[in-house]
């Protein structure tokens, strides 16, 4: 089966059998019963019984679908879906997440993630009142649990926000920025929060998060601004003050430079 790229995080839970997953431009990986796959940005991909097998184009469906031979036991059974993200700030989130999270059954089933998967699988085959609400909440919990999962035996993660949060010193700096974005944060000041030298902090932050500390702060401020502009409840002066700019003019200049259009035009475009 060949799926087109999907502009949203996608997941697959393998319920039975084995298959080969191939993301566009990457080597195939084998997935089996109990494995969990999370694709924060879902590229074009194929699922097949072996690498290189001819695939037919298919589209996701809300109903159970059997592809290929309609007789006998299926080679592979999976439960899949996607998560909806507020499109205003989806680019920020997706830039900070790894391309693929693959949690093998041997490492996921014995954790809370495994229990979430069991509950979700059970709920999907029931017709109880409140089914959709429970599935939605379980998926939210499953997403967060997968994002903060750490492979057994290693402390490394691909660069991104969750990678930074895994290391206490960098996490302190991230929490400080998130906690008070109005502060005139500098690399030196953030390094002090982290308890590191300026050079060591900058290097480690970039390695774990994937961008420089002040660049991350700028992205975060713009994310808050875009959300506020989309809601249309605050003046430019107030937004500027809340994210640490001295004036609406300074904020507007920074917003235009980073986003490519002035705040007012952005707000009208998402209204």
From TrEMBL:
HTH araC/xylS-type domain mapped to chain residues: 171-269
Keyword DNA-binding listed: yes
GO MF annotations, alphabetized: DNA-binding transcription factor activity; sequence-specific DNA binding
Family matches, as SMART domains: HTH_ARAC (SM00342)
Superkingdom in the source lineage: Bacteria
Keyword terms, alphabetized: DNA-binding, Transcription, Transcription regulation
Pfam families: Cupin_6 (PF12852), HTH_18 (PF12833)
Presence of the UniProt keyword DNA-binding in the record: yes
Name recorded for this polypeptide: AraC-like DNA-binding protein
Organism: Novosphingobium hassiacum
């Amino acid at each position: 089966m060949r799926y087109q790229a999907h502009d949203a995080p996608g997941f697959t839970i393998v319920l039975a059998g084995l298959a080969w997953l191939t993301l566009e431009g990457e080597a195939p990986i084998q997935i089996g019963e109990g494995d969990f796959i999370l694709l924060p940005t879902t590229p074009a991909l194929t699922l097949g019984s072996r690498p290189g097998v001819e695939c037919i184009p298919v589209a996701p469906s809300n109903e159970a679908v059997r592809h290929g031979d309609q007789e006998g036991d299926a080679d592979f059974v999976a439960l899949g879906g996607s998560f909806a993200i507020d499109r205003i700030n989806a680019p920020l989130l997706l830039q900070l997440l790894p391309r693929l999270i693959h949690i093998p059954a041997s490492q996921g089933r014995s954790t809370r993630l495994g229990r979430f998967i069991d509950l979700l699988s059970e709920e999907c085959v029931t017709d109880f009142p409140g089914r959709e609400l429970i599935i939605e909440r379980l998926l939210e919990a499953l997403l967060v649990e997968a994002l903060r999962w750490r492979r057994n035996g290693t402390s490394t993660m691909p660069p991104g926000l969750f990678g930074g949060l895994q290391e206490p010193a960098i996490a302190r700096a991230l929490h400080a920025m998130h906690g008070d974005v109005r502060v005139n944060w500098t690399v030196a000041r953030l390094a002090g929060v982290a308890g590191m030298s300026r050079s060591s902090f900058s290097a480690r932050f970039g390695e774990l998060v994937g961008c420089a500390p002040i660049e991350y702060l700028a992205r975060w401020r713009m994310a808050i601004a875009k959300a506020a502009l989309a809601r249309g409840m605050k003046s430019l002066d107030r937004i500027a003050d809340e994210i640490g700019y001295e004036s609406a003019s300074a904020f507007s200049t920074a917003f235009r430079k980073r986003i490519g259009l002035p705040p007012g035009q952005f707000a009208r475009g998402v209204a």
